[in-house]
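REQUEST ID: PR-0412
SUBMITTED BY: lab tech R.K.
PRIORITY: routine
TASK: structure prediction, single protein chain
INPUT:
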Amino acid sequence: MITPILPTYNRVDLVFERGEGAWLFTKDGERYLDFTAGIAVNVLGHAHPHLVAALTAQAGKLWHLSNLFRIEGGERLAARLTAATFADTMFFTNSGAEALECAIKMARKYHSASGQPERARIITFEGAFHGRTLATIAAGGNAKYLEGFGPAMPGFDQVPFGDLDAVKAAIGPETGAILIEPVQGEGGVRTAPWAFLRELRALCDAHGLLLILDEVQCGVGRTGKFFAHEWAGITPDIMAVAKGIGGGFPVGACLATENAAKGMTAGTHGSTYGGNPLAMSVANAVLDVVLEEGFFEEVLATSARLRQRLAELKDRHPAVIAEVRGEGLLLGLRTVVPNTDLIAAMRTEGMLAPSAADNVVRLLPPLTIGDAEIDAAFAKLDAACARIEATLKADAAKGAAA
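STATUS: complete
OUTPUT:
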Protein backbone atom coordinates (compact mmCIF):
# COMPACT_ATOMS: atom_id res chain seq x y z
CA MET A 1 0.00 0.00 0.00
CA ILE A 2 1.33 3.41 -0.93
CA THR A 3 2.13 5.85 1.85
CA PRO A 4 0.23 9.14 2.25
CA ILE A 5 3.41 10.95 1.18
CA LEU A 6 4.53 9.88 -2.30
CA PRO A 7 7.46 7.48 -1.65
CA THR A 8 10.04 9.27 -3.80
CA TYR A 9 12.51 9.72 -0.93
CA ASN A 10 14.53 7.03 0.79
CA ARG A 11 14.07 8.68 4.17
CA VAL A 12 16.15 8.06 7.28
CA ASP A 13 13.97 7.02 10.22
CA LEU A 14 14.64 10.13 12.29
CA VAL A 15 12.14 12.79 13.36
CA PHE A 16 13.58 16.09 14.52
CA GLU A 17 11.71 18.39 16.85
CA ARG A 18 13.97 21.43 16.86
CA GLY A 19 17.33 22.78 15.80
CA GLU A 20 19.85 25.16 17.28
CA GLY A 21 22.83 26.38 15.30
CA ALA A 22 24.58 23.34 13.85
CA TRP A 23 22.63 20.86 16.00
CA LEU A 24 19.36 18.97 15.52
CA PHE A 25 17.34 17.37 18.33
CA THR A 26 14.90 14.48 18.05
CA LYS A 27 11.70 14.13 20.07
CA ASP A 28 13.58 11.60 22.20
CA GLY A 29 16.26 14.14 23.03
CA GLU A 30 19.01 12.69 20.83
CA ARG A 31 21.40 15.33 19.48
CA TYR A 32 22.96 15.26 15.99
CA LEU A 33 25.64 17.47 14.49
CA ASP A 34 24.11 18.67 11.24
CA PHE A 35 26.61 18.84 8.39
CA THR A 36 23.78 18.49 5.88
CA ALA A 37 22.20 21.88 6.66
CA GLY A 38 19.20 21.08 4.48
CA ILE A 39 21.74 20.32 1.70
CA ALA A 40 23.58 23.66 1.83
CA VAL A 41 20.43 25.61 2.72
CA ASN A 42 20.73 26.59 6.38
CA VAL A 43 23.76 28.83 5.94
CA LEU A 44 23.17 30.48 9.32
CA GLY A 45 22.21 27.28 11.08
CA HIS A 46 18.91 26.41 12.71
CA ALA A 47 16.72 29.00 14.44
CA HIS A 48 19.10 31.90 13.88
CA PRO A 49 17.63 34.68 16.04
CA HIS A 50 17.86 37.39 13.36
CA LEU A 51 16.01 35.24 10.83
CA VAL A 52 13.41 34.18 13.40
CA ALA A 53 12.79 37.82 14.31
CA ALA A 54 12.44 38.88 10.66
CA LEU A 55 10.00 36.11 9.81
CA THR A 56 7.96 36.62 12.97
CA ALA A 57 7.65 40.35 12.38
CA GLN A 58 6.57 39.87 8.76
CA ALA A 59 4.12 37.09 9.65
CA GLY A 60 2.22 39.52 11.83
CA LYS A 61 1.80 41.99 8.96
CA LEU A 62 1.43 40.37 5.54
CA TRP A 63 1.98 36.84 4.24
CA HIS A 64 1.20 36.97 0.56
CA LEU A 65 0.56 39.40 -2.25
CA SER A 66 0.07 38.81 -5.93
CA ASN A 67 2.89 40.03 -8.12
CA LEU A 68 0.25 42.27 -9.66
CA PHE A 69 1.32 44.67 -6.91
CA ARG A 70 4.63 46.05 -5.74
CA ILE A 71 6.28 44.08 -2.93
CA GLU A 72 8.54 46.38 -0.95
CA GLY A 73 10.70 43.61 0.54
CA GLY A 74 11.40 42.22 -2.91
CA GLU A 75 12.37 45.60 -4.27
CA ARG A 76 14.77 46.06 -1.35
CA LEU A 77 16.26 42.59 -1.81
CA ALA A 78 16.72 43.10 -5.55
CA ALA A 79 18.43 46.44 -5.00
CA ARG A 80 20.82 44.89 -2.46
CA LEU A 81 21.63 41.90 -4.68
CA THR A 82 22.25 44.01 -7.78
CA ALA A 83 24.50 46.29 -5.73
CA ALA A 84 26.52 43.29 -4.49
CA THR A 85 26.75 41.32 -7.77
CA PHE A 86 27.15 41.61 -11.53
CA ALA A 87 23.38 41.70 -12.04
CA ASP A 88 21.15 44.55 -13.15
CA THR A 89 17.86 42.75 -12.62
CA MET A 90 16.37 39.51 -11.27
CA PHE A 91 13.30 37.32 -11.03
CA PHE A 92 12.35 35.75 -7.70
CA THR A 93 11.34 32.08 -7.49
CA ASN A 94 10.67 29.50 -4.79
CA SER A 95 13.46 27.04 -5.64
CA GLY A 96 16.66 26.45 -7.52
CA ALA A 97 14.97 24.45 -10.24
CA GLU A 98 12.59 27.33 -10.91
CA ALA A 99 15.52 29.72 -11.03
CA LEU A 100 17.20 27.45 -13.62
CA GLU A 101 13.98 27.25 -15.64
CA CYS A 102 13.90 31.03 -15.72
CA ALA A 103 17.56 31.13 -16.75
CA ILE A 104 16.97 28.67 -19.61
CA LYS A 105 13.92 30.60 -20.84
CA MET A 106 15.79 33.89 -20.57
CA ALA A 107 18.71 32.62 -22.65
CA ARG A 108 16.40 31.35 -25.38
CA LYS A 109 14.34 34.54 -25.32
CA TYR A 110 17.47 36.67 -25.58
CA HIS A 111 18.45 35.13 -28.90
CA SER A 112 14.88 35.22 -30.17
CA ALA A 113 14.67 38.92 -29.33
CA SER A 114 18.02 39.38 -31.09
CA GLY A 115 16.61 37.91 -34.31
CA GLN A 116 18.24 34.47 -33.92
CA PRO A 117 15.54 32.19 -32.49
CA GLU A 118 17.39 29.12 -33.76
CA ARG A 119 20.10 29.67 -31.12
CA ALA A 120 18.20 27.75 -28.45
CA ARG A 121 20.73 25.02 -27.59
CA ILE A 122 22.70 25.12 -24.35
CA ILE A 123 26.00 23.36 -23.63
CA THR A 124 25.99 21.62 -20.24
CA PHE A 125 28.41 19.33 -18.39
CA GLU A 126 28.56 15.73 -17.27
CA GLY A 127 27.96 15.31 -13.56
CA ALA A 128 25.77 18.40 -13.36
CA PHE A 129 22.64 18.66 -11.26
CA HIS A 130 20.29 21.51 -12.10
CA GLY A 131 16.98 20.36 -10.63
CA ARG A 132 14.11 17.92 -11.11
CA THR A 133 11.89 19.57 -13.71
CA LEU A 134 11.76 18.14 -17.22
CA ALA A 135 14.04 20.88 -18.52
CA THR A 136 16.56 20.71 -15.68
CA ILE A 137 16.90 16.92 -15.72
CA ALA A 138 17.54 17.16 -19.45
CA ALA A 139 20.17 19.81 -18.77
CA GLY A 140 21.79 17.60 -16.13
CA GLY A 141 21.71 14.57 -18.39
CA ASN A 142 21.86 12.02 -15.56
CA ALA A 143 20.29 8.80 -16.82
CA LYS A 144 18.86 7.82 -13.43
CA TYR A 145 16.85 11.05 -13.27
CA LEU A 146 15.74 10.85 -16.90
CA GLU A 147 14.62 7.22 -16.88
CA GLY A 148 10.91 6.67 -17.30
CA PHE A 149 9.93 10.25 -18.08
CA GLY A 150 9.69 9.91 -21.82
CA PRO A 151 11.80 11.69 -24.41
CA ALA A 152 14.32 14.05 -22.87
CA MET A 153 13.55 17.70 -23.47
CA PRO A 154 15.66 18.77 -26.46
CA GLY A 155 18.09 21.65 -26.56
CA PHE A 156 21.04 20.50 -24.43
CA ASP A 157 24.47 19.32 -25.56
CA GLN A 158 26.47 17.71 -22.78
CA VAL A 159 30.27 17.59 -22.66
CA PRO A 160 32.82 16.33 -20.10
CA PHE A 161 33.32 18.61 -17.09
CA GLY A 162 36.40 20.78 -17.50
CA ASP A 163 37.09 19.76 -21.13
CA LEU A 164 37.60 22.99 -23.06
CA ASP A 165 38.21 21.27 -26.40
CA ALA A 166 34.89 19.43 -26.05
CA VAL A 167 33.14 22.72 -25.38
CA LYS A 168 34.67 24.28 -28.48
CA ALA A 169 33.65 21.28 -30.58
CA ALA A 170 30.07 21.47 -29.31
CA ILE A 171 29.55 25.10 -30.31
CA GLY A 172 27.45 25.30 -33.46
CA PRO A 173 25.10 27.72 -35.23
CA GLU A 174 22.23 26.76 -32.88
CA THR A 175 24.23 27.19 -29.66
CA GLY A 176 22.97 30.01 -27.50
CA ALA A 177 24.53 29.54 -24.07
CA ILE A 178 26.81 27.57 -21.77
CA LEU A 179 25.47 26.44 -18.38
CA ILE A 180 27.81 25.32 -15.59
CA GLU A 181 28.06 24.93 -11.82
CA PRO A 182 31.37 26.49 -10.68
CA VAL A 183 31.46 23.74 -8.06
CA GLN A 184 29.43 20.60 -8.72
CA GLY A 185 27.75 19.58 -5.47
CA GLU A 186 25.75 16.46 -6.20
CA GLY A 187 28.21 15.67 -8.98
CA GLY A 188 30.89 14.83 -6.41
CA VAL A 189 32.07 18.19 -5.01
CA ARG A 190 34.11 18.85 -8.15
CA THR A 191 35.47 22.36 -8.68
CA ALA A 192 35.74 23.77 -12.17
CA PRO A 193 39.28 25.17 -12.48
CA TRP A 194 39.05 28.94 -12.28
CA ALA A 195 41.08 29.19 -15.49
CA PHE A 196 38.45 27.00 -17.18
CA LEU A 197 35.68 29.41 -16.16
CA ARG A 198 37.72 32.27 -17.61
CA GLU A 199 38.06 30.33 -20.86
CA LEU A 200 34.30 29.76 -20.96
CA ARG A 201 33.72 33.47 -20.48
CA ALA A 202 36.07 34.20 -23.37
CA LEU A 203 34.36 31.61 -25.59
CA CYS A 204 30.96 33.12 -24.86
CA ASP A 205 32.23 36.59 -25.72
CA ALA A 206 33.83 35.36 -28.94
CA HIS A 207 30.76 33.44 -30.16
CA GLY A 208 27.95 35.66 -28.90
CA LEU A 209 26.83 33.12 -26.27
CA LEU A 210 25.40 33.73 -22.83
CA LEU A 211 27.25 32.31 -19.82
CA ILE A 212 24.79 30.89 -17.28
CA LEU A 213 26.04 29.91 -13.84
CA ASP A 214 24.20 27.60 -11.47
CA GLU A 215 25.23 28.79 -8.01
CA VAL A 216 22.26 27.26 -6.23
CA GLN A 217 24.51 25.17 -3.99
CA CYS A 218 27.89 26.91 -4.15
CA GLY A 219 26.64 30.48 -3.77
CA VAL A 220 25.83 32.79 -0.84
CA GLY A 221 29.18 32.48 0.90
CA ARG A 222 29.54 28.72 0.68
CA THR A 223 33.01 28.93 -0.96
CA GLY A 224 34.22 31.93 1.04
CA LYS A 225 33.06 34.59 -1.40
CA PHE A 226 29.51 35.78 -1.97
CA PHE A 227 29.43 33.74 -5.17
CA ALA A 228 31.94 31.14 -6.33
CA HIS A 229 32.59 32.70 -9.76
CA GLU A 230 34.25 35.63 -8.01
CA TRP A 231 37.28 33.39 -7.45
CA ALA A 232 37.74 33.23 -11.23
CA GLY A 233 37.46 36.98 -11.65
CA ILE A 234 34.63 36.70 -14.17
CA THR A 235 30.95 37.59 -14.32
CA PRO A 236 28.15 35.58 -15.93
CA ASP A 237 25.28 36.91 -18.01
CA ILE A 238 22.68 34.94 -16.03
CA MET A 239 22.94 33.20 -12.67
CA ALA A 240 20.54 30.95 -10.76
CA VAL A 241 20.64 31.05 -6.95
CA ALA A 242 18.53 29.53 -4.18
CA LYS A 243 19.24 27.39 -1.08
CA GLY A 244 21.39 29.65 1.11
CA ILE A 245 19.76 32.89 -0.02
CA GLY A 246 16.71 32.01 2.10
CA GLY A 247 18.57 30.45 5.02
CA GLY A 248 15.92 27.74 5.21
CA PHE A 249 12.92 29.57 3.78
CA PRO A 250 12.08 28.63 0.15
CA VAL A 251 13.64 31.39 -1.96
CA GLY A 252 15.30 31.36 -5.35
CA ALA A 253 16.31 34.00 -7.87
CA CYS A 254 17.46 34.31 -11.45
CA LEU A 255 19.94 37.19 -11.71
CA ALA A 256 20.88 38.76 -15.04
CA THR A 257 22.49 41.65 -16.84
CA GLU A 258 20.21 44.13 -18.55
CA ASN A 259 21.39 42.86 -21.93
CA ALA A 260 20.69 39.18 -21.18
CA ALA A 261 17.22 40.03 -19.88
CA LYS A 262 16.18 42.20 -22.79
CA GLY A 263 13.63 39.68 -24.09
CA MET A 264 11.87 39.18 -20.74
CA THR A 265 9.10 41.70 -21.10
CA ALA A 266 5.72 41.84 -19.34
CA GLY A 267 3.89 38.51 -19.59
CA THR A 268 6.88 36.38 -20.64
CA HIS A 269 7.33 34.80 -17.20
CA GLY A 270 5.60 34.69 -13.86
CA SER A 271 5.16 33.03 -10.47
CA THR A 272 2.37 32.95 -7.92
CA TYR A 273 4.54 32.69 -4.81
CA GLY A 274 7.91 33.90 -6.07
CA GLY A 275 9.01 37.00 -4.18
CA ASN A 276 6.26 36.81 -1.56
CA PRO A 277 6.64 39.04 1.55
CA LEU A 278 7.59 36.23 3.96
CA ALA A 279 10.37 34.97 1.70
CA MET A 280 11.69 38.44 1.03
CA SER A 281 11.83 39.31 4.73
CA VAL A 282 13.93 36.24 5.49
CA ALA A 283 16.23 36.67 2.48
CA ASN A 284 16.89 40.27 3.46
CA ALA A 285 17.73 39.07 6.96
CA VAL A 286 20.20 36.55 5.49
CA LEU A 287 21.91 39.35 3.59
CA ASP A 288 22.10 41.41 6.79
CA VAL A 289 24.39 38.72 8.20
CA VAL A 290 26.37 37.36 5.25
CA LEU A 291 27.18 40.80 3.84
CA GLU A 292 28.57 42.01 7.16
CA GLU A 293 32.24 42.97 6.94
CA GLY A 294 34.46 40.00 7.67
CA PHE A 295 31.80 37.29 7.26
CA PHE A 296 33.34 35.65 4.18
CA GLU A 297 36.84 35.91 5.64
CA GLU A 298 35.62 34.00 8.67
CA VAL A 299 34.13 31.30 6.40
CA LEU A 300 37.56 30.87 4.80
CA ALA A 301 39.29 30.71 8.17
CA THR A 302 36.77 28.13 9.38
CA SER A 303 37.24 26.13 6.18
CA ALA A 304 41.02 26.10 6.65
CA ARG A 305 40.68 24.77 10.20
CA LEU A 306 38.15 22.13 9.16
CA ARG A 307 40.21 21.00 6.17
CA GLN A 308 43.26 20.61 8.37
CA ARG A 309 41.34 18.28 10.67
CA LEU A 310 39.92 16.38 7.69
CA ALA A 311 43.41 15.91 6.27
CA GLU A 312 44.41 14.48 9.64
CA LEU A 313 41.49 12.07 9.44
CA LYS A 314 42.53 10.97 5.96
CA ASP A 315 46.02 10.21 7.26
CA ARG A 316 44.63 8.32 10.25
CA HIS A 317 42.12 6.29 8.24
CA PRO A 318 43.50 5.58 4.73
CA ALA A 319 41.31 2.47 4.47
CA VAL A 320 38.22 4.70 4.69
CA ILE A 321 39.07 8.16 3.30
CA ALA A 322 40.86 8.57 -0.03
CA GLU A 323 40.63 12.31 -0.66
CA VAL A 324 39.47 15.61 0.80
CA ARG A 325 38.11 17.99 -1.84
CA GLY A 326 36.00 21.10 -2.29
CA GLU A 327 35.99 24.83 -1.63
CA GLY A 328 35.16 26.84 1.49
CA LEU A 329 32.50 24.97 3.44
CA LEU A 330 31.37 22.92 0.45
CA LEU A 331 33.66 19.99 1.16
CA GLY A 332 33.71 16.34 0.24
CA LEU A 333 35.32 13.14 1.44
CA ARG A 334 35.91 10.65 -1.37
CA THR A 335 35.82 7.33 0.36
CA VAL A 336 37.50 3.97 -0.19
CA VAL A 337 34.53 2.11 1.21
CA PRO A 338 31.03 2.84 -0.13
CA ASN A 339 30.13 6.40 0.87
CA THR A 340 26.85 5.11 2.29
CA ASP A 341 28.84 3.05 4.82
CA LEU A 342 30.56 6.15 6.16
CA ILE A 343 27.30 8.12 6.21
CA ALA A 344 25.61 5.34 8.22
CA ALA A 345 28.55 5.14 10.64
CA MET A 346 28.50 8.92 11.07
CA ARG A 347 24.80 8.80 11.86
CA THR A 348 25.46 6.16 14.51
CA GLU A 349 27.97 8.58 16.04
CA GLY A 350 25.46 11.43 15.93
CA MET A 351 26.50 13.30 12.77
CA LEU A 352 24.53 13.92 9.58
CA ALA A 353 25.88 14.39 6.04
CA PRO A 354 24.58 13.70 2.51
CA SER A 355 26.14 11.66 -0.28
CA ALA A 356 27.31 12.80 -3.71
CA ALA A 357 28.49 11.17 -6.90
CA ASP A 358 32.02 9.77 -7.27
CA ASN A 359 31.66 7.96 -3.92
CA VAL A 360 31.78 11.23 -1.98
CA VAL A 361 30.33 12.25 1.37
CA ARG A 362 29.45 15.94 1.31
CA LEU A 363 30.15 18.13 4.32
CA LEU A 364 27.85 21.16 4.22
CA PRO A 365 27.78 22.71 7.70
CA PRO A 366 26.25 26.08 8.50
CA LEU A 367 28.68 28.84 7.60
CA THR A 368 28.57 29.96 11.23
CA ILE A 369 30.24 26.92 12.82
CA GLY A 370 33.21 27.45 15.13
CA ASP A 371 35.95 25.48 16.79
CA ALA A 372 33.52 23.55 19.03
CA GLU A 373 31.65 22.18 16.03
CA ILE A 374 34.89 21.41 14.16
CA ASP A 375 36.18 19.48 17.18
CA ALA A 376 32.88 17.62 17.47
CA ALA A 377 32.90 16.79 13.75
CA PHE A 378 36.46 15.45 13.99
CA ALA A 379 35.61 13.27 16.98
CA LYS A 380 32.48 11.85 15.35
CA LEU A 381 34.15 11.24 11.99
CA ASP A 382 37.14 9.64 13.73
CA ALA A 383 34.83 7.31 15.63
CA ALA A 384 32.83 6.53 12.48
CA CYS A 385 36.01 5.63 10.57
CA ALA A 386 37.21 3.47 13.46
CA ARG A 387 33.85 1.70 13.47
CA ILE A 388 34.21 0.92 9.75
CA GLU A 389 37.81 -0.24 10.18
CA ALA A 390 36.74 -2.63 12.93
CA THR A 391 34.15 -4.10 10.59
CA LEU A 392 36.71 -4.42 7.79
CA LYS A 393 39.11 -6.15 10.16
CA ALA A 394 36.44 -8.56 11.36
CA ASP A 395 35.40 -9.34 7.80
CA ALA A 396 39.03 -9.96 6.83
CA ALA A 397 39.47 -12.32 9.80
CA LYS A 398 36.36 -14.25 8.79
CA GLY A 399 37.64 -14.53 5.23
CA ALA A 400 41.01 -15.80 6.41
CA ALA A 401 39.36 -18.37 8.65
CA ALA A 402 37.21 -19.62 5.79
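NOTES: The chain has a mean pLDDT of 97.
REVIEWED BY: pending
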